[in-house]
Amino acid sequence: MEYKLAELMAICAAREIRDGEIAFIGTGLPMLGGMLAKATHAPRALLIFESGVVDARPKRTPLSIGDACLVPGAAMLCGLSEVFGLILQPGYVDVGFIGAAQIDRFGNLNTSVIGDYRAPKVRLPGSGGGNDIGSLANRVIVVMKQDTRKFVPKVDYVTTPGYLDGPGARERAGLPRGGPAVVITDKGIYRFDAATKEMVCATYHPGLGVEEIRNNVSWPIRFAKDVHPTEPPTPKELRVLREECDPEGIFLGGAD
Fold it and tell me: I want to staple 29 with a disulfide (CB 3.0 to 4.6 A). Which of 10, 62, 198, 236 is the partner?
């Protein structure tokens, strides 16, 4: 079956949510991933949004994390302080989804500035809830497009901590748990070595290969011993994604 890379990314995001988990969802493809997971393999997953919606069950594609369609049928509608202070901070969030403008080999994320902080080339939106999610969720899934400007040896500014400068750094910084677990891009899927905390390419998307991965990372990326093509979408995953999660093509409609 033919599919877009954006569709594969949303499906890969859905596959990372396990049944019964609490997932903190961000705007865009993570929203589609959360909806797809609940509609397929993880019906008991509980979706939380930064706007204060707990156990969202949207009947249409949300336009943002503050879309009113997230409210009907939800277990609770609260505020930022309750979501972050009563659910995320104590460690109840199993998996959090975030994006970034830059990521480095230890999974640190930049959404603040490109260039020097005091005289940046580009000023970005900032943290939002990204730092909270990256610091406090039990594991973090990063969803972003990939090229050498985004996959850099060292981010220009650490907005959201990954593994900082390597093993033990999160603990030394006082972070109680978590760290990046998976990075999903339009080129492949990356995981982190348990010993070195460095990003490792686990799979490359069908039709691509290891050279495509190397050419879109600005450091010598490591590959898993069993690196292989990403599992393509199943007919059911594509049908549910297209017909139930984003039938109007709000996030999937553009060309890759």
Answer: 10
What pLDDT, on a 0 to 100 scale, did the predictor assign at position 253? 84
Model's pTM, two decimal places?
Answer: 0.96
Q: Which amino acid is at 169?
A: A
Q: Are strands 109-110 and 53-54 parallel, antiparallel or unpaired?
A: unpaired
Quote the CA–CA distance of 245 and 219 in Å, as a whole number.
Answer: 36
- φ, ψ of residue 19 to 5 degrees: the values are -60, 130
List Cα–Cα distances, 66 to 57, 208, 217, 232, in angstroms: 13, 36, 34, 31
CA distance linking residue 165 with residue 184, whole number of Å: 21
DSSP H helices, the chain, are 5-15, 29-39, 80-82, 130-136, 169-172, 210-214, 235-240
Q: Which residue has the tokens 């979706």?
A: 47
3-state secondary structure 31-98: HHHHHHHHHCCCCCCEEEECCCEECCCCCCCCCCCCCHHHCCCCCEECCHHHHHHHHHCCCCCCEEEE
Q: Rounded to whole angstroms, how far apart are CA atoms 252 and 256?
A: 9
Question: What confidence score (pLDDT) does residue 256 get?
Answer: 56
Tell me the residue type at 56. A
Contacts of 100 (CB under 8 A, 6+ apart): 109, 110, 111, 130, 142, 144, 150, 159, 160
7, 16, 21, 50: the active-site residue: 50
Rounded Cα distance between 74 and 76, Å, is: 6
Is 50 assigned a catalytic role?
A: yes
